[in-house]
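Notebook entry, structure prediction.
Reason for the run: the old model in the group folder had no record of what sequence produced it. Starting over properly, with the input documented here first.
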Amino acid sequence: MSDANNGEVGRVVPTEQARQGESTGHVRYVLHGSLALAVVAGVVLYAIYFL
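New structure, fully documented this time:
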């Protein structure tokens, strides 16, 4: 097992280097599109079963 306090000094990494992925706008478009489709599907199902 490794001990968190094993005497090694941690190194400080700048924010840009510490990021694991890049943030592009494409993911936002997919999330917004899927949310819109889920809302439309919910409205359609509500209209079919309750109206």
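Summary: Residues 2 and 8 are 11 Å apart (CA to CA).
The old model has been moved to the deprecated folder.
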